[in-house]
Amino acid sequence: MTSTVTYGDVRTVEVHFDDLDSFRTLYHPRYITLVDRAISQYWAAKGYLNHTEGSSPDSFQFIRSVEIEYERPIRDYGHVLVHFWVEKIGTTSLKYGFRLLSENGAHVHAHGSRVMVRFDPATQRPTSWTDQARGDLEQLLGPAWQSFGDRAGCVPEVAGRSFAGPVRARAAVNCTTTLMWRNTACCSLGPHIDPAAPLPD
Protein backbone atom coordinates (compact mmCIF):
# COMPACT_ATOMS: atom_id res chain seq x y z
CA MET A 1 0.00 0.00 0.00
CA THR A 2 1.32 3.46 -0.87
CA SER A 3 0.11 7.07 -0.57
CA THR A 4 0.77 10.00 -2.88
CA VAL A 5 3.65 12.38 -2.15
CA THR A 6 5.01 15.34 -4.10
CA TYR A 7 8.56 13.97 -3.93
CA GLY A 8 10.15 10.67 -2.99
CA ASP A 9 7.92 7.75 -2.10
CA VAL A 10 5.81 6.63 0.86
CA ARG A 11 5.23 3.04 1.92
CA THR A 12 3.04 1.43 4.54
CA VAL A 13 4.95 -0.92 6.83
CA GLU A 14 3.75 -3.10 9.69
CA VAL A 15 4.74 -2.88 13.33
CA HIS A 16 4.46 -6.31 14.95
CA PHE A 17 3.64 -7.02 18.59
CA ASP A 18 7.14 -8.39 19.22
CA ASP A 19 8.63 -5.09 17.97
CA LEU A 20 7.37 -3.38 21.14
CA ASP A 21 9.41 -2.98 24.31
CA SER A 22 8.39 -3.41 27.94
CA PHE A 23 6.71 0.02 27.87
CA ARG A 24 4.57 -1.11 24.93
CA THR A 25 6.25 1.39 22.62
CA LEU A 26 8.25 0.54 19.53
CA TYR A 27 11.78 -0.46 20.56
CA HIS A 28 14.00 2.39 19.30
CA PRO A 29 16.27 0.39 16.90
CA ARG A 30 13.14 -0.87 15.13
CA TYR A 31 12.51 2.58 13.65
CA ILE A 32 15.57 2.09 11.45
CA THR A 33 14.32 -1.40 10.59
CA LEU A 34 11.00 0.01 9.39
CA VAL A 35 12.79 2.53 7.18
CA ASP A 36 14.94 -0.26 5.76
CA ARG A 37 11.87 -2.39 5.01
CA ALA A 38 10.13 0.48 3.22
CA ILE A 39 13.13 1.32 1.04
CA SER A 40 13.74 -2.36 0.31
CA GLN A 41 10.11 -2.77 -0.78
CA TYR A 42 10.47 0.12 -3.19
CA TRP A 43 13.62 -1.17 -4.88
CA ALA A 44 12.49 -4.80 -4.93
CA ALA A 45 9.37 -3.70 -6.83
CA LYS A 46 11.69 -2.11 -9.41
CA GLY A 47 13.67 -5.35 -9.81
CA TYR A 48 16.71 -4.47 -7.69
CA LEU A 49 17.27 -7.80 -5.96
CA ASN A 50 20.52 -9.29 -4.67
CA HIS A 51 19.56 -12.90 -4.05
CA THR A 52 19.05 -14.12 -7.61
CA GLU A 53 21.34 -14.80 -10.55
CA GLY A 54 19.88 -11.83 -12.37
CA SER A 55 20.64 -9.38 -9.58
CA SER A 56 21.30 -5.78 -10.51
CA PRO A 57 24.89 -4.77 -9.71
CA ASP A 58 23.49 -1.66 -8.03
CA SER A 59 21.73 -3.84 -5.43
CA PHE A 60 25.00 -4.33 -3.56
CA GLN A 61 25.12 -1.52 -1.00
CA PHE A 62 26.13 -0.98 2.60
CA ILE A 63 25.07 1.66 5.10
CA ARG A 64 27.70 4.31 5.81
CA SER A 65 25.76 6.24 8.45
CA VAL A 66 22.31 6.81 9.91
CA GLU A 67 20.95 9.89 11.65
CA ILE A 68 17.60 9.80 13.45
CA GLU A 69 15.65 11.99 15.84
CA TYR A 70 12.62 10.67 17.69
CA GLU A 71 9.61 12.95 17.94
CA ARG A 72 6.68 10.90 19.20
CA PRO A 73 6.66 7.23 20.31
CA ILE A 74 4.81 4.57 18.35
CA ARG A 75 2.67 3.10 21.11
CA ASP A 76 1.12 0.03 19.56
CA TYR A 77 1.43 -2.50 16.77
CA GLY A 78 -0.29 -1.87 13.45
CA HIS A 79 0.71 0.16 10.39
CA VAL A 80 2.80 3.31 9.95
CA LEU A 81 3.89 5.32 6.92
CA VAL A 82 7.54 5.71 5.90
CA HIS A 83 8.18 8.66 3.60
CA PHE A 84 11.65 8.65 2.05
CA TRP A 85 13.49 10.47 -0.70
CA VAL A 86 17.01 10.95 -2.09
CA GLU A 87 18.75 14.12 -0.97
CA LYS A 88 22.03 13.70 -2.83
CA ILE A 89 23.54 11.31 -5.37
CA GLY A 90 27.31 10.94 -5.38
CA THR A 91 29.62 8.91 -7.62
CA THR A 92 29.40 5.80 -5.43
CA SER A 93 27.02 6.91 -2.66
CA LEU A 94 23.62 8.41 -2.00
CA LYS A 95 21.89 10.08 0.91
CA TYR A 96 18.27 9.40 1.84
CA GLY A 97 16.01 11.58 3.94
CA PHE A 98 13.14 9.87 5.72
CA ARG A 99 10.38 10.31 8.24
CA LEU A 100 7.98 7.91 9.93
CA LEU A 101 4.36 9.00 10.27
CA SER A 102 1.22 7.59 11.79
CA GLU A 103 -0.96 5.64 9.38
CA ASN A 104 -3.29 8.59 8.88
CA GLY A 105 -0.43 11.06 8.51
CA ALA A 106 -1.48 13.00 11.62
CA HIS A 107 1.79 12.59 13.55
CA VAL A 108 5.51 12.50 12.80
CA HIS A 109 7.11 9.79 14.92
CA ALA A 110 10.73 10.20 13.80
CA HIS A 111 12.83 11.68 11.03
CA GLY A 112 16.41 11.43 9.83
CA SER A 113 18.73 10.46 7.01
CA ARG A 114 21.02 7.65 5.97
CA VAL A 115 23.96 7.32 3.59
CA MET A 116 24.41 4.26 1.37
CA VAL A 117 27.50 3.25 -0.62
CA ARG A 118 27.41 0.96 -3.63
CA PHE A 119 30.18 -1.68 -3.67
CA ASP A 120 31.55 -4.26 -6.04
CA PRO A 121 30.92 -7.73 -4.49
CA ALA A 122 34.09 -9.07 -6.16
CA THR A 123 36.50 -6.42 -4.85
CA GLN A 124 34.45 -5.31 -1.80
CA ARG A 125 35.31 -1.74 -2.77
CA PRO A 126 33.02 1.22 -3.56
CA THR A 127 32.09 1.50 -7.21
CA SER A 128 30.04 3.88 -9.36
CA TRP A 129 26.31 3.68 -9.91
CA THR A 130 25.20 2.50 -13.32
CA ASP A 131 23.41 4.99 -15.56
CA GLN A 132 20.17 3.08 -15.05
CA ALA A 133 20.39 3.25 -11.27
CA ARG A 134 21.33 6.92 -11.35
CA GLY A 135 18.24 7.61 -13.46
CA ASP A 136 16.04 5.67 -11.04
CA LEU A 137 17.56 7.49 -8.07
CA GLU A 138 16.90 10.87 -9.66
CA GLN A 139 13.18 10.03 -9.64
CA LEU A 140 13.33 10.09 -5.82
CA LEU A 141 15.16 13.41 -5.49
CA GLY A 142 13.75 15.73 -2.83
CA PRO A 143 14.94 18.57 -0.59
CA ALA A 144 18.02 18.25 1.58
CA TRP A 145 17.79 18.43 5.36
CA GLN A 146 18.06 21.95 6.69
CA SER A 147 19.11 23.38 10.01
CA PHE A 148 16.58 24.62 12.55
CA GLY A 149 17.23 28.21 11.49
CA ASP A 150 16.97 27.96 7.71
CA ARG A 151 14.18 25.52 6.89
CA ALA A 152 12.44 26.41 3.64
CA GLY A 153 9.14 24.79 4.63
CA CYS A 154 8.75 22.40 1.67
CA VAL A 155 5.36 20.72 1.88
CA PRO A 156 4.95 17.17 0.56
CA GLU A 157 1.51 15.59 0.44
CA VAL A 158 0.60 12.36 2.22
CA ALA A 159 -2.88 10.98 1.62
CA GLY A 160 -4.16 14.41 0.66
CA ARG A 161 -2.66 16.17 3.68
CA SER A 162 0.52 18.23 3.98
CA PHE A 163 3.29 18.45 6.53
CA ALA A 164 6.24 20.74 7.03
CA GLY A 165 9.65 20.11 5.54
CA PRO A 166 12.31 18.15 7.40
CA VAL A 167 14.69 19.38 10.05
CA ARG A 168 18.15 18.07 10.73
CA ALA A 169 18.73 15.40 13.34
CA ARG A 170 22.17 16.52 14.48
CA ALA A 171 22.53 14.53 17.69
CA ALA A 172 22.79 11.00 16.34
CA VAL A 173 25.30 9.84 13.74
CA ASN A 174 27.04 6.68 12.55
CA CYS A 175 24.23 4.27 13.43
CA THR A 176 23.73 5.59 16.96
CA THR A 177 20.39 6.86 18.24
CA THR A 178 19.11 9.54 20.57
CA LEU A 179 16.03 8.74 22.65
CA MET A 180 14.37 12.14 22.84
CA TRP A 181 10.60 12.28 22.65
CA ARG A 182 9.10 15.70 22.06
CA ASN A 183 5.39 15.73 22.79
CA THR A 184 5.22 19.51 23.18
CA ALA A 185 6.14 22.38 20.87
CA CYS A 186 9.85 22.92 20.25
CA CYS A 187 10.63 26.36 21.62
CA SER A 188 14.00 26.41 19.82
CA LEU A 189 12.22 26.51 16.47
CA GLY A 190 10.89 30.01 17.10
CA PRO A 191 8.25 30.91 14.50
CA HIS A 192 8.90 27.77 12.45
CA ILE A 193 6.47 24.84 12.36
CA ASP A 194 6.91 22.23 15.09
CA PRO A 195 7.92 19.03 13.21
CA ALA A 196 5.97 16.95 15.75
CA ALA A 197 2.72 18.84 15.18
CA PRO A 198 -0.26 17.08 13.55
CA LEU A 199 -0.86 17.56 9.85
CA PRO A 200 -3.34 20.32 8.99
CA ASP A 201 -6.80 19.15 7.94
Measured as a percent range, the helix fraction is 10-25%
Give the biggest beta sheet.
6 strands, antiparallel
| Count of helix runs | 2
Average pLDDT for all residues: 74
Q: What is the gyration radius calculated from CA atoms? A: 17 Å
The CATH topology assignment of one domain is: Thiol Ester Dehydrase, Chain A
Order of helices and strands: EHEEEEEHEE
What is the subunit arrangement here? single chain
Structural class given helices, strands, pairing? alpha+beta
Strand content: 25-35%
Uncertain segments of ≥5 residues (pLDDT<50)? 146-201
Name the shape in a single word.
globular
What CATH architecture of one domain would you give?
A: Roll
CATH hierarchy class name of one domain? Alpha Beta
Q: What is the terminal separation in angstroms? A: 22 Å
Number of strands: 8
Summarize this structure briefly.
This protein is of the alpha+beta class. It has helices at residues 29-45, 131-138; strands at residues 9-15, 61-70, 78-89, 93-102, 108-120, 125-126, 157-158, 161-162.
Output the keywords.
201 residues, alpha+beta, Thiol Ester Dehydrase, Chain A, six-stranded antiparallel sheet, 2 helices, 8 strands, 12% helix, globular
